[in-house]
Amino acid sequence: MSGLPKRWNDLALQRKLLIVSLLTALTAMLVALMVLITYDFSVVRVRLVQDLASRMDLVSLNLDVDMNFGDRRAATRTLSALRGTADIHSACLFDVRQQVFASYARSGGASCAWPEGMAPSGHRFHGDHLTMVAPVRFQHEVLGYLQVEYALQPLAERLSKYGLVLAVVLMTLLICGMLQAVGLRRLVTQPLLALSRVADQVTREERYDLRAPHFSNDEVGKLSLAFNTMLATVAARDAALRVSQSLLTNIADKSSAVIYVKDLEGRYLMVNERLRQVLPPGSPDPIGHRDADMFDEDTVKVIREGDRRALLSEHSYIYEEGVPDALGVIRTYISEKFCLRDEHGKVWAMGGISTDITDRKKSEVELIQYRDKLEELVQLRTGQMVEVNKDLAESLETLRRAQDELVRSEKLAALGSLVAGVAHELNTPIGNSLLAVSTMIDQTREFTRLTADGMKRSTLQAFVDDVASGGEIVLRNLHRAVDLVASFKQVAVDRTTSQCREFLLCDLANEILLLLMPTFKKSGITVRQDIPPTIMMKSYPGPFGQVLINLVNNGLTHAFEGRAEGEILISAIAIDAERVQVIIRDNGSGIAPENMGRIYDPFFTTKLGKGGSGLGLNIVYNIVYGVLRGKIDVESELGIGTRFVLTLPLTS
């Protein structure tokens, strides 16, 4: 019996369905049979008792007179009337003392005996017979009792009447069961078998491109679609896994480090090509073998001790170990070993990466030796450098003083140039004034002489016109001289005091250009400014003027060499409420690209020995980033020109 469930589980699904269908039909037939038997006992017998009681009541109506007059023959004739009911076997009539009064028997003699244990009115079934006792009354007075023995039809005969019905039911159930099995085989079993064959082929051949046939859109069809979707997903994951595995294998094999994975028994599960290369000659393939199969006992102890500590560690375990290579030479490795855990956190293997550091260790030893020698040399050189540094410090201080002196000289030279230019510029209006005054004096003398001899009206008018014209010439030239003196005085004051004050940027530019006019007028170069008259600054006009003078002089000196004409433009624009951008642009020859990174270096000049000191732009750089707290940028292109851009705060 214990093997029956196993055999049932091993049966094919279609056989299980057929057996279940047959068992269902048999169960239905047995249920129908039980229903018929129950119907026989609970319904048929009750009706039989009711019918027999009705017949006995009819007979009792005729027997009450016979018993009242004591007429036994008439009672016997009345009982004989029961012969019309074929199933009544016998009848007995008892008086009130339960003595036989009359009887009837269908065949043979009637065995009339009062049934033991029965009440004067009632019935009982025994075997295939029904015995019923009913009282005989006359005007509510009991005269006797009528007992009837009814022969029941055998149960088998009664059930045989339902045999055809049961047979039809049974055949219908069997046919329906067979049709159900065939339908289930076609609708369920065959698609499942096809699905099973595809699954088996996929398992055996690992062909994830196969697909199960799709018969319908019912549950089995949905199962096949889900199976095909699963195959597609598995195929994609298998392809990705193969790519990832190939990539990992390639990385591991190309690595110069030794990479491996061991199980908990110490057997190698995965190794890279580098490990195979360093194994001693004659060693077996590491896969499936332990360290003892490839290395000597001492080496195995070192390796196994590292494995043990790695398995006990929560994190990776890093240490140095010596392992012989293929030539038997001990190589030093720095090994990092770590545990591999499954999704439940249980350790199932150990991985390791060992990097050969033998050459590095040798280099470290050599480096330590070299360091010791170097320390000796450093100590020796340190003493020498102390003396050299003293001399260098003195030379540097001398150089700094010389540079300061050159800067002062450069400033004085610029100031001297300004003074010479202003003096030359003053000579013109003063000379014009002297010429006009001397002419007016000569004309006055001539007028005086003419007055003594007699003067005409035309002569007076000519004298008045000449005096007026001479006065205008003198006045205009004197105003010019006054303006020059005032501009020079303001510039001189600003350069001398370097005080912070408010000024209009356009006025400062005009003053600078007025002072530089003698210089650029002789060169033929046009210098002009295009600055809005609304830009007000609170800064240091003296250093700012020095910056403008140096940038304009730098353009006059370097930008227009060999050229008789050109232009330098000073413009400005307010960037925002706090900053202004001043641009000094020329259309000269430009700066060579190789010199762009050195133009602010002190003493760098392309005019060495030709009047250039190399300090002009260095002074500009220091003033812009120092006193004016701004920045300076330069853009230049050979043959196009140079553009200096100053970005300065409106309030310093």
TrEMBL record:
UniProt superkingdom: Bacteria
Transmembrane regions: 17-39, 162-182
Pfam family, one: HAMP
Domain PAS, first and last residues per copy: 244-314
Entry keywords, A to Z: ATP-binding, Coiled coil, Kinase, Membrane, Nucleotide-binding, Phosphoprotein, Transferase, Transmembrane, Transmembrane helix, Two-component regulatory system
Listed EC numbers: 2.7.13.3
Every HAMP domain range: 186-239
SMART domains: HAMP (SM00304), HATPase_c (SM00387)
Name by which UniProt lists this protein: histidine kinase
Organism: Rugamonas aquatica
